[in-house]
Amino acid sequence: MQLEFFPSRTLTMYLSRLFVTRIIAVLLMLVLVLQMLDLLGESGNILAYPGNGEAQLFHYVSLRMPQLVARFLPYSVLLATIITLATLNQNSEVIAMKSAGLSAHQVLAPLVLTALVTALLSFAFNERIVTRATATLDAWESVDYGPMPRDSGVRSNVYLSDGRDILVAATLVGQGTDMVMNQVTYYRRDDQGMIVEQLRAPRATYSAAGWRLEGPEKFAVAGTRESRLASATVAAGITPARIRISSVDPDAQDIIELSRSIDAMKVAGRRTSELEAAWWHKISGPLSSVLMPLLGAVAAFGLARSGQLLIRAVIGMALGFAYFVVDNAALAMGNFGGYPPIVAAWSPFLLFAFIGETVLIRTEE
């Protein structure tokens, strides 16, 4: 019986149902509170654009809420683990399961299975919904919550250099030679790096000779002269292929698209360690939910009447939050090149899996 992780189907369903309801309840509580606070802080910027109203506020919520769900789902699993196990311990249900011959791992197995299903759903949700919402929200913010082109390939805050000169665009849509830039600014600089000329245009399209600015306003620093041109072609060295590898946001790309971006940057000889760490973290991030029952298991065992239940719950919570701190630190080290990408993404997971298992064995078995 000790080698069977699910000796009772009824018990498995009972524990899983308890765990799922608490995950949903905690997640709803966190997301609703955080969404309300976020909306209060951002509503002024949204409504500042002429014509925006309630519809734009609801649109912002629809784009922001998937990000909050993705970010705080592992926290919700951690808190739901502690609530579930502490309740079972306080009601002596853990003692009843132990008296029936179940080991600590068998008690936790239904929770781990539920967390694994949650991790798989989280991965699919991140890849199909969160990435698109992030790309759309970034592009919308870049135009100050004004009208935005309806295009799935929208990129925001494009910053490119052509030798000494600089080309900046609020948004970029399209692919290949069909790319279109909006709210474009071109800075022409001299040999000392000083700006000598500035061109501003609402729109720019690509041609073989460079980027054609439509109706640009020209400002010459020498003499502080302003003029309006019918058109101007600039930045011949900035090609669509170069743009593709210069504005990669891993949070706005799914794992397949990010793989292609990494390959393109490698071919161009660009550094890809940050993107590779983000690629691995797209897998290890959702999978962190599986760790939460193990890290919070300390709240399940030990006599509730001993008065240490609260202390055990705090220890489980501390272990869980320590994981998120170490995970963020490891990713930062990977971005700076201190860790290899795969180590930056997976070492916190493996470390805390070992810590959680050690704590469980030493405190119970």
TrEMBL record:
UniProt entry keywords in alphabetical sequence: Cell membrane, Membrane, Transmembrane, Transmembrane helix
Q: Which residue ranges does UniProt annotate as crossing the membrane?
A: 14-34, 68-87, 107-125, 309-326, 338-361
Q: Which InterPro entries match?
A: LptG, LptG/LptF_permease
* Record's bilayer topology term: Multi-pass membrane protein
User: Signal sequence: where?
Assistant: none
Q: Does the keyword Chaperone apply?
A: no
The source's superkingdom equals: Bacteria
Q: Tell me where in or outside the cell this protein is found.
A: Cell membrane
Q: Which Pfam families match?
A: LptF_LptG
Matching PANTHER family: LIPOPOLYSACCHARIDE EXPORT SYSTEM PERMEASE PROTEIN LPTG (PTHR33529:SF2), SLR0882 PROTEIN-RELATED (PTHR33529)
Q: What is this protein identified as?
A: LPS export ABC transporter permease LptG
